[in-house]
Amino acid sequence: MDTLPARSPELPADRFHDREESWLRFNQRVLELAEDPGVPLLERVRFLSIFSSNLDEFFMVRVAGLLRRMATGLVGESASRRQPRQVFARIGEVAHELVLRQARCFHEEICPALAAQGIEILRWEALTGTERSALRKLFTDSIQPVLTPLVVDQAHPFPYISGLSLNLAVVARDPTDGTTRLARVKVPPSLPRFVEAEPGRFALLEDVIAEHLDELFIGMEIIERHAFRVTRNADLDVDEDITEDLLQALERELARRRFGPAVRLEVEESITPQVLEWLVEELDVEPEQVYRLPGPLDLAGLSDVTDLDRPELKYPPFIPDGRALPSDTDVFTTLRERDVLVHHPYDSFARSVQRLVEEAAADPQVMAIKQTLYRTSGDSPIVDALIDAAEAGKQVVVIVEIKARFDERANISWARKLERAGCHVVFGFVDLKTHCKLALIVRREADGTLRRYCHIGTGNYHPKTARLYEDLGLFTADPEIAADVASMFNHLTGFSRPSEYRRLLASPTTLRAGLVDRIAREVEHHRAGRPARIRFKCNAMVDGGVIDALYRASQEGVPIEIWVRGICALRPGLPDLSETIQVRSVLGRFLEHSRIYAFEGGGEPEVWIGSADLMHRNLDRRVETLVQVTDPVGAGYLAALFDRAMDDETTTWRLDSAGHWTRCGHDDVQEHLMRLHGRARVTVEES
User: Fold this and answer.
1) 292 belongs to an annotated ligand binding site
2) Which of 156, 162, 148 shows the shortest CA–CA distance to 229?
3) Known binder of ligand: residue 160?
4) pLDDT score of 530 more than 50
5) In a domain? residue 321
6) What is the C-alpha to C-alpha distance for residues 85 and 73, in angstroms, rounded to an integer?
7) Does residue 320 belong to any structural domain of this protein?
8) Domain Polyphosphate kinase middle, which positions (predicted)?
9) Statement: residue 229 has pLDDT above 60
10) Residues designated catalytic
């Protein structure tokens, strides 16, 4: 194995950005899109909603894990050397800063801009008398029947507050004897959060409920009412040594998830100290876990507003290009002639990936279909095609990862649907998530021989997110790649452990070493005066081993370009450590999701794509695959993609050694790609 000699035996201890703060800075970039007046107005609203949803998941998983490590004394997997309590304090500082900034954006920028377009989100006091009367009737007819006020006293203990639910804390007084009681009213998630009082004028559901509490607490005086929201630990812990069925173990953990400990309490800033103290004590949270915010809480609910039929306030429609796989011949004929690289959403998912599975299901010469599924939609045409294939008598094998976070229940549901149709469903491994994106089709050719066709992707087989996520996929009938993919499926379904692959890099066996070896080779090429450069595109860069290999390559003078969407623990631009490393981030209309690993190779470039990010979990605790793109057209396309992303004129955020991201440039790479693929709709009228 190649090695990377360092200029000094030890790299500096402070060479990593903290993972958690880096994630928060990613969400700050999302917030900056909401603040950008150049983004269409309802898309700005959408980014505000995404910011809140992202933060919810961050607290449910990352902060929950940090609190658990603080309680148990464990350090965790972060590349940072900071202790959990230090990290927790810093998270609170940055998160408070960001949520207050979000509130300012909502009140000072978004709401006035919406009002100028005839869309108003109003608190109760801003409604007209006519509107209040209409909402009073709505409350009586449609809201009150689904409400359940729960009082807290000696006979009624404090109720369970479900995670992410919006609630009202109510203080009511009995006028006959002056006694007061505390109560909780849950805002029903089954009802619209924004209630239209008049066309274009929306009231908040919690305000409508709050103004009619006297109809729930009849004969009582309502002294106080305050909105609050709880975030709970939602991470799952499936024991690697379980003896019961994996499906049963996961279902048990899902039932337990809703009772996880509280990790965050959000309250409106108007809450009184007495009510806040009551909530803090009953929910067992520390003062630093409390977030006092200008109302309204839960701006993730703004996603409802983005669904308004106002196309002039949204991104212009875009129709994906369907020309990657010619429509005048079947997919298998095309792949016998050449490999095909597709780039979603610019290339149509329906007319490439979905088409491959559907044609395979309908083709009488196809004998077997094998596919991994990590996330997909409940009404997925991919699942329907697999069911059709099984019912037609083909062998269909589906590797379902039921531990895909927050999609566990959905995955269990459609896994059972596949089983009922006759598909062979395998749930992967207890200790490894199956995250690779693979499809393998076995077909009998006209000469009687069997041939295998493959798809290796960077994204999920999910037709809905394929229109929103940027991803890559390679279609090929290359016999060596097909043999590797077949070997991987045998590993996933049978009892084998391949240690080498011909044309794939796979975790947890060969992927980490394969990347580090190629980094070392670039050092040797650079020393010998041959062309050398490293270019990585991923969603997250956290793994300390890979980062250290990149640092040592930079110390030797190798140019390194990193294109990352989210977390980046690497610190670029440090003297004598990372002076040759540039880090860029692209955020925009589509969520950047593909992974690319490119090496100049001394004049013989290698470009790999696949499912793996540079995180400990991806390299050591997941089944991931990378495949080399050898077709000159596809490899050239990916090189040009990097050229544009790293160009100084392209709009990107640039990371400095202190952890600050600065937005620069004016050319949008995603708009360029829509134009390049020739099917962008420039104006709404053209649609």
Assistant:
1) no
2) 162
3) no
4) yes
5) no
6) 10
7) no
8) 131-304
9) yes
10) 435
The tokens 């509490």 sit on which residue? Answer: 213
Are residues 267 and 238 located together in one domain of the fold? yes
258 band by pLDDT with thresholds 50, 70 and 90: low
Is 64 in the same domain as 157? Answer: no
**Residue 469 in marked binding region:** yes
How confident is the model over 348-373, as pLDDT tens digits? 999 999 999 999 999 999 999 999 99
Residues 6 or more apart whose Cβ sits within 8 Å of residue 247: 402, 412, 427
Token digits for 288?
A: 């630093």
pLDDT at residue 403 tops 80: no
Instruction: Please give the backbone phi and psi of residue 201, each rounded to the nearest 5 degrees, phi first.
Output: -120, 115
Of 416, 456, 466, 410, nearest to 436 (Cα)? 456
Tokens of 222: 């309502």
Give the total number of structural domains in the chain. Answer: 4
Please check whether residues 641 and 529 belong to one and the same domain.
yes
Residue 405 is labelled as binding a ligand: yes
- Positive or negative, the CA dihedral 536, 540, 544, 545 is negative
Question: Both 388 and 532 in a single domain?
Answer: no
Could you give the C-alpha distances from 158 to 155, 186, 204, 290, in angstroms and in order?
10, 13, 26, 19
Is 323 a domain residue? Answer: no
Task: Identify the DSSP state of 315.
Answer: P
**Is residue 503 a known part of a binding site?**
no
**3-state secondary structure at position 485:** helix
Q: Please, what is the average pLDDT of the chain?
A: 90
- Does 670 lie in the same domain as 523? yes
Q: Is 236's pLDDT higher than 80?
A: no
Distances (CA, A) of 562 to 160, 504, 514, 537, 557: 46, 22, 18, 6, 15
pLDDT at 274: 95
Q: Which domain range does residue 518 map to?
A: 505-676
Which backbone phi and psi does 301 adopt, to 5 degrees?
-65, -10
In one letter, which amino acid is 620? Answer: D
pLDDT at res. 77: 53
Q: Which of 134-143, 231-240, 634-643 has the lowest mean pLDDT?
A: 231-240
DSSP letters along 172-208, please?
Answer: EE-TTT--EEEEEEEPPTTS-SEEEEETTEEEEHHHH
Could you tell me which residues come within 8 angstroms of residue 117 by beta carbon, excluding any fewer than 6 positions away?
Answer: 41, 310, 313
- pLDDT higher than 60, residue 249: no
Q: Three-state SS for 573?
A: coil
Asked if residue 322 is part of any domain, the answer here is no
Position 86 scores a pLDDT of: 86
* Residue finishing a domain among 314, 345, 373: 314
Beta-bridge partner residues of 599 = 534, 606
476/7 Cα distance (integer angstroms): 43
CATH number (domain holding residue 571): 3.30.870.10
| Burial class of residue 475, CB neighbours in 10 A (0-12, 13-18, 19+) | buried
